[in-house]
Amino acid sequence: MEGGTSFLFVIGGLKAALDPAKSDANGRDVMIGGGVGTVRQYLPAGLIDELDFALTPVVLRRGEAMFTGIDLGHSGIGLLNVKQPNTPLTSFFYEIFPGAPHES
Q1: d(C-alpha 31, C-alpha 33), whole Å
Q2: Burial track 8-42 (b if 16+ CB lie within 10 A, e otherwise)
Q3: What does each C-alpha distance from 11 to 14, 16, 32, 92 come to in angstroms?
Q4: What pLDDT score was predicted for residue 99?
Q5: Which residue has the higher pLDDT, 101 or 50?
């Protein structure tokens, strides 16, 4: 892709997806795309250092809770920024401290 962005789709597990991406990035940032299920896997494994997610109001009374089942009580996550443009969307940017979040 233009700008050097590439996408890698892997079905072999967390490390099988992340390790080649880190290698290809040559020290640059690696962005993991996905939803709540992806965060619930990578966060307790200690493989995320920043988290950027968008929240919209639940209109249909459905959705997934982002942090259900993950113990955040050890100050392992810190809010860096919140952006709320002139839309119903709110973006949250968190810093994850190494090794702190884990499955409860």
Answers
A1: 6
A2: eeeeeeeeebbeeeeeeeeeeeeeeeeeeeebbbb
A3: 9, 8, 14, 28
A4: 55
A5: 50
Strand 70-71 to 102-103 pairing: antiparallel
Determine the average pLDDT of the residues in 42-57. 82
Q: Please state, in angstroms and rounded to a whole number, the distance separating the CA atoms of residues 39 and 51.
A: 8
Burial label for 101, CB within 10 Å (0-12, 13-18, 19+), is buried
Helices (H), the chain: 14-25, 36-42
- Looking at the DSSP assignment, which residues form a beta bridge with residue 103? 70
**Domain positions in the chain:** 1-31, 34-104
Q: Is the pTM of this model over 0.85?
A: no
Q: What percent of the chain has pLDDT over 70?
A: 80
- Residues 72, 39: Cα–Cα separation, whole Å: 13
